[in-house]
Write a structure and sequence with these properties.
Blueprint lengths: L18 H6 L10 H21 L12 H8 L7 H10 L13 H11 L13 E6 L2 H15 L7 E5 L2 E3 L6 E5 H10 L6 E6 L7 H20 L1
Parallel strand pairs: 1-4, 1-5, 2-4
Antiparallel strand pairs: 2-3
Helix pairs in contact: 5-6, 7-8
The structure holds adenosine-5'-triphosphate (ATP) and magnesium ion.
Length: 230
């Protein structure tokens, strides 16, 4: 049991108090602050300003107009209850492993959580860049891209795009890009820090496809390269 310290409060001591004794042991501050106190207050103010400046990231506005039936269906997905925890884990850690029951919404919902938080569209440095999602199979790339663009009420080929071998539909203002793991592997060869991306999701990583396994190894280097750059 956790004792919160309220159950057995200290008995209140009864008795009389000598006012002169209290005054003798207390320091009465003059109402006008001393020079040292003014300096300290100014220092605190300056530090306070610095904190305010650090926290004053520009506000993020993301307009999402999902179809009504999608909003209704989303509410029943188990992963929706975990949105805050998932996003906090992403903010606080460079690498997050997400495990969930099949059909709970990992593939379709996590890219939307990120998009709604300003990844892919925001002018904030830490969220600028495309949300990249890999799949081991090209069929899954096309299906997930179609579904996510539909759920977000966005056009496929504009904000949501996809790329597989011999087929690419990626707009100039792409925010979410689905691709095969082979495509990302090729991109790493020319862009070792994956500067165009704000976040990378390796979906179905548990399947341990050869490409995904190599990507996991390569991404550990990407994480370090990006740490050095920031
Ligand atoms: N194209 C689609 N049309 C209709 N419903 C879909 C479509 N794609 C996914 N869904 C539904 O959305 C929900 C979430 O699916 P999602 O693919 O995100 O789950 P998941 O956690 O990635 O599952 P898995 O572990 O099998 O990959 C499921 O209930 C699924 O039936
Ligand atoms: Mg999935």
């Amino acid at each position: 049991m956790v004792d919160v310290g309220l159950r057995n409060p200290e008995p209140i001591t009864e008795g009389t108090f000598d006012l002169s004794d209290i005054l003798a042991h207390s320091t009465i501050k003059p109402s006008v602050p001393t020079r040292d106190e003014i300096d300290l207050q100014e220092e605190e103010l300056i530090q306070g300003e610095a904190v305010v400046q650090e926290c004053s990231n520009p506000p993020i506005f993301v307009t999402v107009s999902s179809p009504y039936e999608v909003e209704k269906a989303r509410r029943d997905l188990p992963i929706i209850m975990m949105e805050q925890e998932i996003m906090e884990a992403i903010y606080e850690n460079p690498v997050v492993i997400l495990c969930g029951e099949t059909g709970c919404g990992k593939t379709t919902q996590v890219p939307q959580f990120l998009y709604e938080a300003g990844f892919g569209t925001s002018n904030r440095l830490d969220r600028k860049g495309i949300i990249g999602i890999t799949q081991p199979r090209r069929v899954a790339v096309l299906a997930a891209a179609r579904r996510v663009s539909y759920e977000l009420g966005l056009k496929l080929g504009k904000e949501v795009g996809f790329q597989v071998r011999h087929d690419k539909l990626v707009g100039s203002n792409c925010a979410i890009k689905f691709m095969t793991d082979g495509i990302l592997l090729r991109e790493i060869q020319t862009d070792s820090a994956l500067k165009h991306y704000s976040v990378i999701i390796l979906d179905e990583a548990h399947e341990r496809s050869l490409n995904t396994d190599i990507l996991i190894g390569m991404l550990t280097r990407v994480v370090n390269a990006r740490k050095v750059e920031t």
